[in-house]
C-alpha cells in the first residue's frame, strides 16, 4: 500500500523516514501515471518492512514538485535519509524501479 503524501505531511513521511522512500509524482489526468500507480502500490505492499512507498498528486500539492524540479509525470524519486538519491521519469516496468530500489537497501 502506498501512503498519500501532501505538502502538510511530506517532511514527516518522506524526509524524516528511517527507511528508504519512493515517491510517485502523479496526476489524475495523466495516462502513464495510471501504469505506474499500481506498481508503486505493489512495491509498498511487498516491501513494507524495508521501504515506504508514497504518492503525491502534483495538482493538489504544487510546491513540492517545484522544489524538486519535477517537470514531467510520472516521476518517481528515491529518497534515503531525507535526500534524493535516484530518479525515474516516465512509465517503466516494475523491474526497473526494483533495481533502483535494491541499490538503496
Low-pLDDT runs: none
Q: What's the CATH architecture?
A: 3-Layer(aba) Sandwich
CATH homologous superfamily, by name? Answer: Glutaredoxin
Number of helical stretches of at least 4 residues: 4
CA-based shape:
globular
> Share of helix among residues?
25-40%
* CATH fold category name: Glutaredoxin
Question: What structural class do helix, strand and pairing data support?
Answer: alpha/beta
Mean pLDDT: 96
Largest sheet entry: 5 strands, mixed
The CATH C-level name is Alpha Beta
Strand order of the largest sheet: 1-3-2-4-5
Radius of gyration: 12 Å
Count of discrete structural domains: 1
Please give the number of β-strands: 5
Description:
- With 105 residues, this protein is of the alpha/beta class.
- It has one domain: 3-Layer(aba) Sandwich (Glutaredoxin), CATH 3.40.30.
- The chain has four helices and five strands.
- A five-stranded mixed beta sheet has the order 1-3-2-4-5.
- A hairpin with a 2-residue loop joins strand 4 and strand 5.
- The longest helix is centred in the middle third of the chain and has 16 residues.
- It starts with a strand and ends with a helix.
- The model has no long low-confidence stretch (mean pLDDT 96).
Amino acid at each position: 500500500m502506498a501512503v498519500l503524501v501532501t505538502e502538510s505531511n511530506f517532511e514527516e513521511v518522506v524526509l524524516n523516514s528511517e527507511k528508504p522512500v519512493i515517491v510517485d509524482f502523479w496526476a489524475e489526468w495523466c495516462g502513464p501515471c495510471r501504469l505506474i500507480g499500481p506498481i508503486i502500490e505493489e512495491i509498498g505492499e511487498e516491501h513494507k518492512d524495508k521501504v515506504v512507498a508514497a504518492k503525491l498528486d502534483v495538482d493538489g500539492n504544487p510546491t513540492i514538485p517545484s522544489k524538486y524540479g519535477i517537470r514531467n509525470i510520472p516521476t518517481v524519486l528515491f529518497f534515503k535519509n531525507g535526500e534524493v538519491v535516484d530518479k525515474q521519469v516516465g512509465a517503466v516496468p516494475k523491474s526497473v524501479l526494483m533495481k533502483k530500489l535494491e541499490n538503496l537497501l
